[in-house]
Amino acid sequence: MITNAVLGGIADTVAQTLTAVRQRAVRKGDKDDFLAIEIHELDRRNPFSERDLIPDSKLLPPPFDFERLTRFMSYGFLMAPVQHKWFGFLTRTFPITKTSAMVPALKRMALDQLMFAPVGLACFFTFMTVAEGGGKRAVARKFQDIYIPSLKANYLVWPAVQIINFRVMPVQFQIPFVSTIGIAWTAYLSLTNSAEEAS
Q: Which Pfam families match (predicted)?
């Protein structure tokens, strides 16, 4: 649970950093370097007042959102026992033996992607929306706007990851493996969730 929480926190930190870097690049892209040098020369001759030097807050990258980080860590913490039970169920239902390894791994992956992935994604968006202070209407809007695209993206990434997970990883390392790979996925979800929140 602690590992899952920490990895969720890392993923959201990555997402927030990417957002800040992207916004900084957009701001810098508005200025030509040559023009910036010329303006710097003018600034030395005609200095601005202190009021003029304070930039508009809309032009600055967003401050680091510790509440958002806490939401992601909480979600990872709470989901770890559910994932543990689910992986245990898959292991018991489709045991991998020396003679039969690939077919049970494929069955685990198929069941995981057809049952757990849609429900897990629904839980994620519901949890995040409610934790952000949204109600039923906000949850419904999030489902209308980003649930299906996120589920499609899930199906591009996770089947291959889960085949490796179920075929190669020992049971005790399956959740840490998924959570480690999930840093990029959770960063994607964080960016998707925050983009929807901003819009």
A: Mpv17_PMP22 (PF04117)
